Amino acid sequence: MGENVIILGLGLLFMIIGVILLFSGHGEERWYYDRLARKRDLREFVTHDPERPEPGSLRTGGWIALAVGLVIIGVWVFFGAG
Questions:
Q1: Do you find a cis peptide bond into 50, omega within 30 degrees of 0?
Q2: Is the pTM of this model over 0.70?
Q3: CA 65: distance to chain centroid?
Q4: Coil, helix or strand for 41?
């Protein structure tokens, strides 16, 4: 029973981390472009040059963490819960 709880907790931890990364990536992207919109020179805002990979990276990491969490919980349900 204790091993099942640990695996379930690990899956939930990955899912929580994934949601946090998704929200932080979205918030960072919004903050960055809101800050750019206040500037007079909007070249970077319009052309997205140079590209900032951080918000996209956070969202990608969030999706990966959510997928890992779902796989861990799915394996637990399929093999361990019964």
A1: yes
A2: no
A3: 7
A4: coil
